[in-house]
Every structure is written in structure tokens, then in C-alpha cells.
Amino acid sequence: xxxxxxxxLVDTNVPKTANLAxxxxxIPQELTGCVLACVEAIEHVVKKGGLVIDDGDEIFDEYRxxxxxxxxxxxxxxxxxxVHDNRWNxxxxxxxxxxxxxxxxxxxxxxxxxxxxxxxxxxxxxxANAHSAKPTILQATDSKWWGWKDALDxxxxxxxxxxxxxxxxxxxxxMDT
Length: 177
Known about the structure:
Layout: E1 8-10, H1 13-18, H2 32-48, E2 53-54, H3 58-66, H4 75-86, E3 95-96, E4 100-101, E5 104-105, H5 122-130, E6 136-139, H6 144-154, E7 159-161, H7 164-176
Parallel strand pairs: 1-6, 2-3, 6-7
Antiparallel strand pairs: 4-5
Helix pairs in contact: 2-4, 6-7
């Protein structure tokens, strides 16, 4: 796995994909390496404590809707419990204020190629953009991000794809249809 940043945002699909490690026999062949990368990324974030979130709990609430607050049975669920138990211990600078503006945020980059960016993922980009260090967003299986990677890069937003081969292939499939 490539070196992960000390500070980052974690798209919800990363802990959800890490949860697939519960039953290795059920992991599709094309996702095997991806699941391992997500498990390692979650363990890295928890160990380093460098998670960046918003101070209005929009990211936390999305995690809570899709992961178990009990912290089990999967790695992603343990991540959820860790975020719950530790989010008030994060440095104030890593609990970023973002301002909702309709379906988007004032802090979302103004870039022509991001106009169609998925509304539900805008909070991650807005937080990264509003944070003074512009932390990297970890992303796993959402191929839509692949299509926006160049525009995000131009806007100063770094996305680290944990499963680049998988999402590039999925993106290509979608573009062919």
C-alpha cells in the first residue's frame, strides 16, 4: 500500500468496504486487494488519530447511518465507534466549519467541471477545502470520484484512491454504457 497521509478525511465507502473483511469467502475477486487496502487505511487513521471531520457532524452522521455504533462486527464498525468516542478529542483545527448552501456548501470549490459533483459527497470536499492543510480524502469504491479527479486536483483537493484499478475499471464501464 502506498504511504497514507497523517491527516485525512475518510469517505464512508472506506470503512464500509473494510467491513467486507468479515467474510473473505464472500469478497468478489476484483475487490480482494481493495478490502485489504481499506482495512489498512482504517487502522492507519485510528493509530495516527489524524481524522478531519466537520464540526456540524454531517460526516459523523453519515458514518452513523451506514456503520454500527456498537463497534462491531467489522473493522469499519470499530472505526465508527472510535470516531464516536474520540471526535471531541480531535484538535479544533480538525473539526472544520462548513456552511450549507442549498444542496452544496460555501466551501465547495467553484470549478466548472465540478458542477455535477455528487451532492452527498460535497461535504468531504468542502471540509478538505476549508481546512488550512487541505487534507487528503481517502476514497475506495465510488467510481464517480475517478471522473472528477482532475477537476478536484485543479481545485487543490487531493483524493487518494485506495482501490484505483477497481474504480478506474468501474468508471470505464459506466462511461461505455
